[in-house]
Design brief:
The complex is a heterotrimer of chains A (about 600), B (about 80) and C (about 350).
Chain A lengths: L2 E5 L7 H12 L3 E4 L6 H11 L3 E5 L6 H14 L7 E5 L5 H7 L3 E3 L5 H8 L32 H18 L2 E2 L1 H14 L10 H11 L4 H8 L7 E3 L2 H4 L2 H6 L16 E6 L4 H13 L4 E4 L16 E3 L8 H9 L6 E5 L6 H11 L3 E3 L2 H4 L7 H18 L3 E4 L9 H17 L4 E4 L1 E3 L2 H6 L8 H13 L7 E6 L6 H17 L4 E4 L13 H18 L8 H24 L2 H6 L21 E2 L3
Parallel strand pairs in A: 1-2, 1-3, 3-4, 4-5, 8-9, 8-17, 9-11, 11-12, 12-13, 13-14, 15-16
Antiparallel strand pairs in A: 6-18, 7-10
Chain B lengths: L10 E9 L3 H14 L6 E8 L2 E9 L16
Antiparallel strand pairs in B: 1-3, 2-3
Chain C lengths: L1 E7 L6 H14 L4 E5 L2 E2 L14 E3 L4 E5 H4 L5 E7 L9 E8 L1 E3 L1 E2 L4 H12 L5 E5 L13 E7 L6 H14 L16 E4 L4 E3 L19 E6 L5 H14 L6 E5 L2 H6 L3 H10 L2 E5 L5 E7 L1 E6 L4 E6 L2 H11 L5 E2 L9 H4 L6
Parallel strand pairs in C: 1-10, 1-11, 2-5, 2-10, 11-17, 14-15, 15-16, 17-20
Antiparallel strand pairs in C: 3-9, 4-8, 5-7, 6-7, 12-13, 12-14, 18-19
The chains are: A alpha/beta (about 600), B alpha+beta (about 80), C alpha/beta (about 350).
């Protein structure tokens, strides 16, 4: 058994040393801790008696402390201890350079990392500093693993069966320009052809076919190189220095989880510039984000066809091009999950194609949400959405279903009914769905007063209801705490952290979180705003730890009402016998709720020609 | 690469508390502070008054998405 | 090859400045130089005080032993000659040669054993002089060197009298007589009797009061303690032996080296012990104290601001005080006299 001698070398504080002693003893070491106020010479005298394998000193670096620590190291050398005993130091304000100057063999900075400490005691390489060549890359986590998607509520299952049969039967013989483009794009990718390649005759042929299904603005970008306003090509000089900048860090990322492997924490990005995106993704990952979601500008959903090339955009949202996605993916940390928002209006099917080609791990598709508000015509998005789900199934990429139509004022039971229809539709097509209830102070919540007394009851109900209905992963978003944020960063980070800890304690599989710039509208999200919220979430998740929020009877009642509302909504849609008409007619969210059917691409669905 | 400002990834935030007697005065002082600090196109992200002053967060974007990022040249010697 | 150590009585006493002065001198004489540090040197700002520091500007052909992570951190271009396998916090130590002039950061061996190994490696190479920069107040590894330059000054204490008294106490240790006959295991202590017999002690160090069962009337000739010794328990120990045995008024105590005595601290108590004539102190091994450098600079701690600011005592007052307190040792202020005859001081011979 290895002997460890711990000493605070501090007149008062010995908490850190005692904590480490406790942890090391639990890990099977013979750890002895000296009291606070011990002098360097007393530590050496004790060490000469017990001859430890390692001496660990805990001391905050401050005025004249360096000399004390240097004196300690010198005493150890003079006593001959350094032949047999290795010296480690930890404490606030220390740096690795200071540790080297003081002459220690190891330094421990920041929170207690027991693995690193044990690696030092055992004289093995620090697991956190192992290079990628030392360890085989691990598979990315699969959010749907272990879930059977068995419905526990037969009434809901039966209603969904009927509704989805109707959707599939309706969409069976229909197509759109979006689907045709997806077919051509997939053909090009399968053959390894760049649609914009001017020199290749096959590319020329495919491009000609592709552009027949595009809007004039997109066509012009391929034919004349003319880009929409505010869009420009990223220069090689802007990308070539990035690798050096991003390969230098060997620091392990922080983790936001206090225990266990769930939930996974996602953040959204889409600064407009893929180079800036890479920096934001790497920053988020370094501070604990497990996954990222790609956001593109809304105008991209309103045009037939996707641009080509590595493009930067002056405003929010990074343009969906195969090249932009591939560029971002190339800098994605190996363990980071990557979600591409799939329901991209008129480009929904093609987005799955380029997303899969660029290496996406997850898609995001919700027809009722995408076909309302300022979105796409319900008929068009239903045809394209069904095709997109088939692609998701074909590529084996799970898709999540955000319930953000709540933001317009839709009550959660209607939103959830729409999510359930999408789940059943995806399952029928062989895809793996993930429902994404929105935790928010939505207009409906403000009107109904359901969050007046507290913010926990209704949101706990919105999280717990899923597994009452079906065996499924749950991923609240998007982001949690929507409409609770203000531009004040502490309030904003605390609100996100509170929602995140509620969701984490209720056993969700993942959650999407905002930055503390969520409610700031006059500029892009800053890197520090991402860090602040990630830090806030880490602290709150740690605070709750393996404890949790106890469900109240009020919350249970809310959950029961929610279930009744879902069933009633599904019954209405089922009775209507026409999913697309149900959206037009507001059964899943009406103008009275604040929701209108989308209009982009109206009248563009046509029968498939055999 | 000499200026630390070139290393600001995107936005520079300044957090402070200004002694003043109203939100309006606080706003004026915040704007004046940005001018004194020579912050181009600064903005007040957050400002809240309660006697004796305002809690304020000021922001200037040194690199907006799509700009020529000076931090990209950071390792050039 | 000559190996010179540059130790300090505290941080910021001018070790690096002294090394730079030696380097300038030797470069003008085309000596092949190598540099290492038992700590971390060459950074722009002090790792502890954040105040600006003198930096190492090396020229093509200079050699350096430094940790891997320092190779890319400076502006000099370095070619790695040999990977030593010696570990530091900043990675393993490599021997490198400067191929393009520039600043270097130096983090070398932090313990005596590793410094020994490194010196051995440099002996195999074509090098005239190895300069070993110290760290803080650390002294123990420097015993591996052949000569020592000690830096002291206001960073040790801003009271000039304390600096000069301390310098006198330290310098006194380097004048202790040698007991070269001692052939002992490195860290075991023992008591030698006049009849030639030996009583082994459990440790070569003496840091706490220690009771020894010694037959009354034993004739002790000397105590040998090659480890770390605190003068106060030593005094008790000697008195205990004197009570039980027939020894001269002054008992011979052989310690490891002046560096280990200084490393133990308690210089006031050591001085008092030596003056008391209770013991006759000797050392097993010594190292010549070639010069003492005087540095008026010190980092002043500002409690209110929680930071350091640069400050200084009067340079001439300090120099004069040091010269008078250690008249037998050469005292230099390398800032006031930037070109001392280091060849003579360090007894360098062109190889």
């Amino acid at each position: 058994m290895k002997k460890i001698l711990l000493a605070p070398l501090d007149p008062v504080h010995d908490n850190a040393a005692k904590l480490i002693q406790r942890r090391l003893s639990a890990a099977g070491y013979d750890a002895v801790c000296m009291p606070p106020g011990t002098t360097p010479e007393e530590v050496i005298a004790q060490a000469l008696k017990i001859m430890p394998d390692v001496i660990l000193i805990s001391r905050t670096l401050g005025y004249q402390v360096a000399e004390i620590l240097g004196h300690f190291v010198d005493l150890a050398d003079a006593a001959g201890l350094r032949e047999t005993t290795r010296l480690g130091v930890g404490g606030m304000a220390l740096t690795r350079e200071a540790g080297a100057e003081l002459g220690f063999d190891a330094i421990f900075i920041g929170d207690l990392d027991l693995d690193a400490l044990i690696a030092f005691i055992e004289d093995k390489p620090n697991p956190d500093q192992a290079t990628s060549s030392d360890t085989a890359p691990q598979a990315k986590p699969d959010l749907t693993a272990g879930y059977t998607y068995q419905f526990h509520n037969p009434q809901i299952k039966s209603l969904l069966d009927g509704i989805t049969d109707q959707i599939l039967s309706w969409a069976k013989d229909k197509t759109s320009d979006g689907i045709e483009r997806a077919i051509i794009r997939a053909e090009a990718i399968d053959q390894g052809i760049d649609l914009a390649d001017a020199a290749s005759p096959i590319a020329q042929q495919l491009r000609k076919r592709y552009l027949e299904f595009c809007d004039p603005e997109i066509r012009s970008s391929y034919l004349d190189g003319h880009l929409p306003p505010g869009v420009r090509r990223v220069l090689p000089s802007e990308t070539e220095r990035l690798p050096k900048l991003l390969t230098e860090s060997t620091e392990p990322p922080h983790t936001l989880r206090h225990h266990g492997s769930k939930p996974l924490f996602f953040v959204q990005y889409g600064t407009g510039c893929p180079v800036m995106d890479v920096m934001h993704i790497r920053t988020s990952q370094a501070w604990g984000a497990d996954g990222v979601l790609h956001f593109d500008p809304s105008w991209g959903a309103q045009r037939e066809g996707l641009l080509s090339g590595l493009l930067s955009h002056e405003h929010d949202g990074t343009i969906l091009t195969l090249e932009n996605l591939k560029f971002i993916n190339a800098y994605l940390p190996t363990q980071t999950l990557w979600n591409i928002r799939g329901h991209r209006g008129l480009n929904t099917p093609e987005t799955q194609v380029i997303g899969a080609a660029a290496g996406a791990d997850l898609f995001k598709i919700n027809i009722p949400y995408g076909a309302t508000g300022g979105g796409t015509d319900p008929a068009r998005l239903t045809v394209d959405g069904v095709y997109a789900l088939m692609l998701a199934a074909k590529y084996g990429i799970p898709f999540d279903i955000p319930g953000n139509d709540e933001l317009s004022g839709v009550p959660p039971h209607k939103t959830f009914a729409g999510i359930l229809i999408m789940m059943a539709l995806g399952l029928k097509l062989g895809a793996r769905p993930i429902p994404k209830p929105l935790l928010c102070n939505s207009p409906y919540m403000q009107m109904s007063g359901e969050m007046d007394e507290n913010s926990i009851d209704i949101n706990a109900a919105k999280l717990s209801i899923w597994r009452e209905i079906v065996d499924t992963p749950v991923w609240p978003g998007e982001p949690v705490g929507f409409m609770t944020h203000t531009p004040e960063r502490v309030q904003s980070a605390v609100s996100t952290a509170a929602y995140a800890s509620l969701a984490a304690s209720l056993g969700v599989d993942a959650l999407t979180m905002a930055s503390s710039d969520e409610a700031y509208s006059k500029g892009p999200i800053s890197a520090q705003a991402r860090v602040d919220t990630l830090r806030g979430v880490r602290e709150m998740v740690r605070f709750v730890g393996n404890a949790g929020y106890a469900k109240t009877s009020r919350s249970q009642q809310m959950q029961e009402r929610l279930l009744e509302g879902i069933i009633a909504t599904l019954q209405l849609v089922s009775r209507r016998g026409d999913f697309v008409a149900s959206i037009y007619e507001g059964l899943l969210g009406s103008p009275e709720d604040g929701l209108y059917p989308g209009r982009t691409g109206k009248g563009t669905v046509r029968e498939r020609q055999v | 690469m000499t200026r630390a400002l070139d290393h600001v990834l995107d936005a520079l935030d300044i957090e402070t508390f200004l002694v003043c007697s109203s939100a309006e005065e606080g706003r004026r002082l915040a704007e004046q502070l940005m001018a004194e600090l020579n912050l181009p196109k600064g903005d007040i992200v957050f400002l809240e008054y309660a006697s004796p002053g305002v809690r304020v967060r000021l922001r200037a974007y040194l690199h907006r998405p799509g700009d020529a990022y000076l931090w990209l040249a950071g390792d050039q010697k | 090859m000559k190996v010179i150590g540059f130790a300090g009585t505290a941080k910021n006493t001018g070790k690096t400045t002294a090394v730079l002065s030696v380097m300038d001198h030797c470069r003008a004489r085309n000596l092949r130089m190598a540099l290492t540090s038992i700590g971390f040197d060459g950074e722009q700002r002090d790792t502890i005080t954040s105040l600006p520091k003198p930096r190492y500007l090396l020229q093509p052909g200079d050699r350096v032993a430094t940790a891997c992570e320092c190779l890319e951190a400076g502006t000099a271009r370095l070619k790695v000659l040999y990977e030593t396998g010696l570990k530091t916090i900043l990675g393993n130590i490599v021997l490198a040669e400067v191929t393009q002039a520039g600043m270097v950061l130096v983090a070398g061996p932090n313990r005596r054993k590793d410094l020994d190994s490194l010196i051995h490696l440099f002996h195999e190479m074509d090098t005239d002089l190895l300069l070993v920069d110290g760290a803080l107040n650390r002294l123990a590894p420097m015993i591996a060197c052949e000569g020592l330059v000690l830096s002291t000054g206001a960073a040790f204490s801003s009271e000039i009298e304390r600096v000069s008294l301390h310098a006198a106490q330290v310098a006194g240790l380097y004048n202790l007589p040698l007991d070269p006959l001692v052939e002992m295991p490195e860290h075991g202590g023992c008591i030698q009797f006049e009849d030639g017999s030996i009583l082994k002690l459990s440790s070569g160090s003496l840091l706490e009061p220690f009771d020894l069962e010694l037959p009354v009337g034993s004739h002790v000739s000397k105590i040998i303690l090659p480890g770390l010794v605190n003068p106060i328990p030593l005094q008790h120990f000697v008195l205990q032996i004197q009570q039980r045995s027939c020894v001269d008024a002054s008992l011979t105590v052989v310690l490891a080296s002046p560096l280990k005595i200084a490393a133990s601290g308690h210089l006031d108590a050591w001085s008092a012990l030596m003056e008391s004539k209770l013991v006759n102190l000797k050392v097993m091994r010594s190292i010549p104290l070639l010069a003492v450098t005087s540095c008026p600079f010190y980092p002043r701690w500002l409690h209110r601001r929680g930071e350091y600011e640069p400050a200084a005592v009067d340079a001439l007052d300090l120099l004069v005080a040091l010269k008078s307190s250690i008249p037998l040792t050469l005292v230099l202020d390398v800032v006031r006299d930037p070109s001392p005859d280091w060849s003579g001081i360090l007894k360098l011979e062109r190889s």
